[in-house]
Amino acid sequence: MSTASTAVPAPAFQEPAPTPVSLLLLGRTADPRSERGVECPGDLPPASDPDLVARAAAAKAKLGDRLFILGHHYQRDDVIRFADVTGDSFKLAQQAAARPEAEYIVFCGVHFMAESADILTSKTQQVILPDLAAGCSMADMATAEQVERCWERLEDLGIAERVVPVSYMNSSADIKAFTGRHGGTICTSSNAERALEWAFAKGSQVLFLPDQHLGRNTAVRDMGLSLDDCVVYNPHRPDGGLTDDQLRDAKMILWRGHCSVHGRFTPECVDEVRERVPGVNVLVHPECRHEVVEKADYVGSTERIITLLNEAEPGSAWAIGTELNLVKRLATEHPDKQIVFLDKSVCYCSTMNRIDLPHLVWTLEALAEGRVPNVIEVDADTAHYARVALEQMLALP
Ligand code: SF4
Q1: What residues bind [4Fe-4S] cluster, as annotated (predicted)?
Q2: Which site in 106, 176, 286, 385 is 20 to 30 Å from 48, CA atoms measured?
């Protein structure tokens, strides 16, 4: 199955050092196209204000059906309690689109999620991110300029026509639009295998953006490709750090991006929890590294993790490798099961956690007073091609 060059053998998979992503301190810069965020204007109420819950509830009640609050599964409890619906990013964007009467969609998630909601909702709806500094380190690892440079390289090599871009939902609107322009599809962690099957029926190579782990895990674990069929394109190295032969011969060209939360779990975490909790079922998200996924008993998207725990036998033990807010909530909801976090250290999504109660109160009170802060708006051309790629995902067989 390996198609690696004989001249320059493809290296066995090795976890690369993390891409340095410096989350800007409190998002104090001005780059609205970046997932790294921009300054959050206005005076926030102090986190110590004992009336924050009452203030959020009052502003929400005043806005009534004009307001719809979306809460991502990884969001903190004091914010998620105000969400009208919870879910993963795609489900939330669809829910917002299904509520045309809601003028204001407050997205308690991160920047790329709010962009997706803006792309899928109508022009009469405004999508608001309570803290513009809530970006996503993974989405930030693939910029439009870097991906265009990569594509030019594929064109220069004469292979772009046979390469199909498949981009994870966790990417900026620019990357989704790139995908739509070049005949590709978006995927979620639930349908990545179907997306790859579709892509390989259309072309002979896939450029998978931006999460190398989801791409590798799906190709190798679910579809039977070998690790040698995959190469990693590093946008920080000349020519992506790959020879012409490596690019020509690879089936999967994986972008060198990863989730800083799921990337923390190691094979040692799995060994340690198996010793600590006899009979434990290890359940991890496919954004985890390949060697972690290989050691786990179950692998599943956030929605799949929730379903598996709902269906699990009382008394069973589970170690979960995903964001800590969700794991803690699942442990509270299933007191009849032993649910532990896969890592021994704390592992929140720090950017998602920037949406806290003071930011939510600040946002809701502004809306109740007739001001609309922190609107996320994707330009028409980008939104059009991003929608093309999203619609292709909905049309996957
Ligand atoms: S959990 Fe990972 S992929 Fe999800 S928003 Fe946070 S950094 Fe991005």
Answers
A1: 136, 259, 349
A2: 106
Fold of 142-257: Rossmann fold (3.40.50)
* pLDDT tens by residue, 303-348: 999 999 999 999 999 999 999 999 999 999 999 999 999 998 777 8
Give the SS3 label for residue 72.
strand
Over the stretch 213-245, which tens digit does the pLDDT of each residue have? 999 999 999 999 999 999 999 999 999 999 999
Q: Which atom of ligand 1 is nearest to the CA of 136?
A: 8
CA of 142 to the centre of ligand 1 (A): 14
| Cα of 261 from ligand 1 centre, angstroms | 6
Could you tell me if 281 and 4 are in contact, meaning their C-beta atoms sit under 8 angstroms apart? no
CATH number of 262-341: 3.40.50.10800
Burial class (CB in 10 A: 0-12, 13-18, 19+), 379: exposed
Nearest Cα neighbor of 70 from 116, 114, 107 is: 107
- Determine the atom of ligand 1 nearest the C-alpha atom of 170: 3
How far, in Å, is the centroid of ligand 1 from the Cα of 137?
7
> Rounded distance, CA 350 to CA 8, Å?
40
CATH of domain 25-135+352-377: 3.40.50.10800
16-24 LR contacts (CB < 8 Å, sep 24+): 16/232, 16/234, 16/256, 18/258, 18/260, 18/263, 19/141, 19/236, 19/256, 19/257, 19/258, 21/137, 21/140, 21/141, 21/260, 23/135, 23/137, 23/350, 23/351, 24/133
Ligand 1 first shell, C-beta below 6 A: 74, 110, 136-138, 170, 259-261, 323, 349, 351-352
- What is the value of pTM for the model shown? 0.88
